[in-house]
Amino acid sequence: MSTRTAGSLRTYLITRVVLFVPQVLVILTIVFVLMRVAPGDPVTVALGGQRSPEQLAQLRAAAGYDRSIFVQYWEYISGIVRFDLGTTIVDSRPVTQIFKVNGGATLTLTSSALVIALLIGVPLGLIAGRVRDTGLDAGLRVFGILTYAAPVFFLGLIFQLVFARNLGWLPSSSQASPLVLARVPSETNIFLVDALLAGDSAAFWNGVQHLILPALTLGLLLSGVFMRIVRINLIQTLRSDYVEAARARGVSEGNVVIRHAFRNALVPFVTILGLQVALLLGGAILTEQTFNWNGIGSQLVRYLDSRDYVAVQGIITLVALAVVTASLLIDIINAIIDPRVRY
Amino acid sequence: MATVTQPMPGPGRTPVKGSTRVVRLLRGIARPYRNSHGVGRFMLVTGTVLVVLMLLTAVFAPLIATFGFSQVAGADGQRFMNHAEPGAEHIFGTTTQGFDVFSRVVWGARTAVTVVLLALAFSLFLGVLLGLIAGFVGRWVDRVLVMVMDALFALPALLLAIVVAFLLSEYVGGGASTAALAITAVYVPQYFRVVRAATVSAKEQTYVEAARAMGARPATIMFRYLLTNVIQSVPVIATLNAADAILTLAGLGFLGYGIQPTEAAEWGYDLQRAVSDTGAGIWWTGLYPGLAIVLLVMGLTLMGEGLNETMNPAIRVRRLIPISMPELTAAQRTKAAQVPERDRPGQDRPVDTGGEDRNSREPGSGETGKGGAA
User: Fold this and answer.
1) Which residue among B154, B286, B367 sits closest to A27, beta carbon to beta carbon?
2) Which of A242, B28, B108, B333 has a CA positioned 20 to 30 A from the CA of residue B281?
3) Domains and their CATH numbers in chain B
4) Which 91-130 residues of chain A touch chain B by CB within 8 A?
5) Chain A residue closest to B303 (CA)?
6) ipTM reported for the complex, 2 dp
7) What would the pLDDT profile of B178-218 be if each residue is shown by its tens digit?
8) The CATH number of the domain where A323 resides is what?
9) Which of B152, B254, B297 sits opposite A286 (nearest CB)?
10) What is d(CA A55, CA A51) in angstroms, rounded to the nearest whole number?
């Protein structure tokens, strides 16, 4: 029996990983086509009017835009395999460098937002599901709808007004105070880690203070979504046969809810977590812009404004890869913890 | 019980004089309101009220707004004060550029409604059409479409909208239709998925087989038989997507890829301008457009969830209606005695008209579709 289970898990994992390749290829192709339907070649669009026609032609040739579209497509795909996404046009920076330098800020923001969302969303969802159809449940559902209905930049703006401007408790923008930023040497490009490595606890604390508002803004957005999902799953679980069976065996209500229902209600939640990565990253673009947070989102907006197609294409490519990889990982984790998924 | 002023059709479907089509349509609209109850009804009615208020604001914007959306001077030619606090002349104050905040919020409703209606129309058309074709034709057409749609679905919604808006603005410039098309790209995959899945299961039904046996052409089967059955699931998704689309539009505006301020008033753009005001303690430029977004999105979400609770057979819980069974005759009683105990129908107790519905309320699967930008 156990060998059969292990076999099916292996089969599932292999199928899932094999399917990953065409999925990624299709996404990459769509990104490529989208960026190439734009009029004009990337070099002219970004630098046209600033350089002479000869210089432009030279730059085009250097970047390979004078070759056929199929050669360019091949270059693009094989470049990704070599982890080479080209060089930005406006400031001649390798695109991967953008992720090295600014990725840390986005990672800090998104991961702390995710933790906040889990800390708020999961317990509230469990409570709402447990006391379903009561006043408390209705109140929590309204909270869920409100966090969804308030755009992150509006919530961020209100937080800035209340906590930064009126109460003066927390700083309203950037990753740390300018002097502190200049003081801490960048090793990992993740500011909080750098501060710790430098042994600068004041800088670390300064970074944490700057992180609270943006992380809370983005975290609240996700917490509403999490709450809804957990609530629904718990309601379903509480009605299932094995919970009924546990009750019939005389297991105390507290034990039924905590040991039998909660844990099983959280399993499908892991599946849905994969879908939220896209929401998290989309929200991060807006949060970064609101709080002047120098992450990938801010860089994307900057390169869009200067019409740098290479940078934009590279950033989109990596974000898409991150989303697809995250959902692959979550599917794998899910298959390991929940045997039902494998079939 | 019903608080809605829609016509209340009697049980016998009596044909009403004149335009029966309109009556049938009104009945169709009234049905969810009549069938809902409890929390579902509360959500449905509250949501509808909010949405109708916003729609009225959008339609009557020229009458409600005190000034134009890009007007910076009064009728006497005197420029408005920049950053004027809310007061008698400007009840919501003025912005950095000297626009009247109240007027921009009101005109913004018109922009939001226009763009979202356009985007809904585009994405419904494309999504339903492609979904029908993929589900009905099958084979490689289906496989290619599914792959492309899944890929689009995997991209963060806002990112996709930004890229499409950015590329379109290179071709046709900004404006309501550009924003609508950018939003369309985000929602087509969702309609596609739903319609395709419904088509695949519907086309195996006997009535489709019968139609095919009678020699109906594929187009006839698709649009006469499948479409009408598949379209049932659309209202709920459309309402929830409209809510999401408002947020996407505002996100685009906030990042500067939406509608430019001289073309129309747009809440997201106004919020972008308002962020830099917070440092000076100016709250009115951001608060009002933000609240407008929250109200409209909340209205649509409540309406969508309310509709879902009454229309989705897997979720709905119907009202309990007490019924009393007629006394059994002697002959029936002897017959009933022969039926084994457990098969006997319930007597003289409230009957859940939804039957088994109660047991299958709210599956988690209905909750995964929402995950757009915010």
Assistant:
1) B154
2) B108
3) 27-311 (1.10.3720.10)
4) none
5) A145
6) 0.83
7) 888 888 988 898 888 888 888 887 777 788 788 888 888 87
8) 1.10.3720.10
9) B254
10) 6
